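# nightly structure sweep
# worker-07 picked up a monomer target from the shared queue
# config: single-sequence mode, recycle default, output format = structure tokens
# input follows
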Amino acid sequence: MTQIRTFLLIAWLMVAFLLWQEWGKEKTAAAQPAPAIPTATQGGGAAAAVPQVATGGASSSQAAAPATAARAPVVRLRNDVLSLDLNGRDLVRAELLAYPQTTAAGSPPVVLFDTDPSRYFTAEAIWRAADGSELALRPDGDDRDITLADGAAAVQARFVAQDANGVQLQRTVTLARGSYAVRVQDALINTGAAAWTGDIERRLERIPPVVKTGFTNPESFSLSGAAWYSPEDKYKKRKYPKFIEDGPLNQTVTGGWIGLSQHYFLAAWVPQKDQPALFTLGQRGPLYYVAARGPQVTLAPGQRFESDATLWVGPKLADKLDATAPGLGLAMDYGIFTVLSKPIHWLLTQLHKLTHNWGWAIVLLVVLIKALLYPLSAAQYKSMAKMRKFQPRIEQLKERYGDDKQKFQMAMLDLYKKEKINPAGGCLPVLVQMPVFLALYYVLLEAVELRQAPWIMGWVNDLTARDPYFILPILNAAVMFLTQRMTPMVGMDPMQKKMMQLMPLVMAVMFAFFPAGLVLYWVTNGTLGMLQQWWNTKRFAEEPAK
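# output follows
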């Protein structure tokens, strides 16, 4: 098999894999009975441990129902990268100040949370008593616009709630400089004369975004749906249409997280790691939600309980996600290519530190991969040179056996065996690069650092979008054509040769709609491969066998 023949295999494998990723879905187990809300086993702060109690409080169906508590005034909380609108109970708007929606000058920032009915997306953290009544939070003070001060490390907003029986809730929302991790600290204090039982539900709820499908559209392969993590089962996910169809979640987890993911961005609740919570997901009309409910606590008069959680609101930044919670970095969903995509992403990041340009970092990545695979490439070109040497004898066998293809194939295999020719030697390096190619595809898909990143201004202004002038796909076709001319097409009939000659055009059309960064990788890889082939062809050149 020649190197050119493998391009057809690569095209088929790539299309088949991407279509499989798009339409091949796994089914989860059948529905299970909903377990009880987990109870707290110890308290926070100076008070004694909160005693365990029997299951109570609002049911799961109540949790999914529309909230009836009156909304408090909205407070705007801002650091240098994030602007949040919150009322204590809900986070109703989040603007990512460092991420414009488009590359146009003056483009507004990406909005993650929003109450607009067409793109509704909110985060909630609600304490309810056993009778279903909610502790209604209100701002503690008159300041409605709280901005990070120059030189300050963090900025805070405080909210309070007090019920008629003397139970007080104090909530502090903290936003550190340069951080997308919102810390939400709750303190419950029973100042009344009777015991109080209740639990907290942390929930993310949204109307799913409309995503254009198609295997050339990277966004259609990024997870649009729920993800969750537990120390026992690790990372799990479910797309929006499957929330109900694939059965309930209903899993009690300690030390995990829940999230709603979209292309490049993530919202995720991380409950306190030593407090259990019941993970659920579901649908309420056009709204889809994922929730972590618990712990349930009972406070005797005079007791205090604390619960601390983190809400990630922002881009999928691998290093910061990993530092926020165990397993949160897995929200950068590389699928089955995680084992390759994670080191490729890391290596690209290191190369970017040298080049300060993601396009040139991709070029350097190819150089390193080609250098690593050079021993395989050298063996490939040596095998091709040997096949070129015996091409006249193969043509002679073809003439001898005429239309008897079976005898011709047997005679050719005998020749390969006698002369120690490995016909698959030309395939191996290209097939080894196929997983790397797909792994890089997922890096371009998930790495928000490459979003809107330019290579050469005025030409490729966004490596995650297609080449606007189709120059890279045309260059790729030219490289394929020249490589094809240098490659012996041993044992091919005229029809096969014509198919191979059409491959540069076929690949050019297909690559015209792929992200420019991916095509840049393939053009660079093909160019270096062509130069290596030219050099090694001269190096291993032999006279044709008689």
